[in-house]
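Protocol step 4 of 6: structure prediction from sequence.
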Amino acid sequence: MIRNYQDLTTKEMSAVDKERTVVLIPLGAIEQHGPQAPLGTDYMIACAMPQYIKRELEAVDPDYPMLIFPAIPVGLSVEHMNFSGTITMKPDHYYSMLYDIAQSLAEHGFRKLAFLICHGGNRACADILSRQLRHDFGIYAFVLASGAFSDPEVLSTISEGNTWDFHGGEMETSMVMALHPETVKLEEAKTGYKKGGYSQKGAINFSNATALPWMAEDLETEDGTPIGIGGNPKGATAEKGEIILTRSARALIPAFLEIRDWKTRK
């Protein structure tokens, strides 16, 4: 049975099978997503994705043992701090907060956690934390990305001519339009491009093997104004967003089924 963690009473929580139950912890962010999308884009997705996952999981296992923890609204967003409204934590504070949550769960007997990454900047911290939690408490903290952005059906939602869809672009804007359309100002949308050294076809890129990790001001409009998004979001629609959210949830089901059956060691 999949339930919200906060909805249980302490008596009900005492009866939960902690050995089998997976605690899903969605990790969001409050940060700029261009002039057209809200600061809460990642947080909105973090709140919604567990419900899409729940629907997909219950279709294959109605008794899947999961508790959905409240989404964490703030994450690591220093790359966006030069844009108004962004909120970030320092890496050590963010790590400590997640560590304390996980330690509390471990002390109550839970053995399996799943961090759902709804903002890419949170991934590195979650990876480090996962190993430390396993060492310190013998619990398994799985790390799962929430967006299936390379899925063929998801890629097919990108408008013709929008050759580079990145942070705050068409796909993310579409996801918010499916969830909270009243927060999107599509008439304000502009296209963001890689600028500076990143615009060259050199060895250094945003990420991967040889990188200078990016800052939002590296993404500019055609006239050189920092905009902090990649690509053209003007083709975003709620229908596209629904496809992306559903496919992203469905892509995670094989992993969740493996987590269900994963044998932990005491």
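Step 5 (inspection) to follow. The mean pLDDT is 96.
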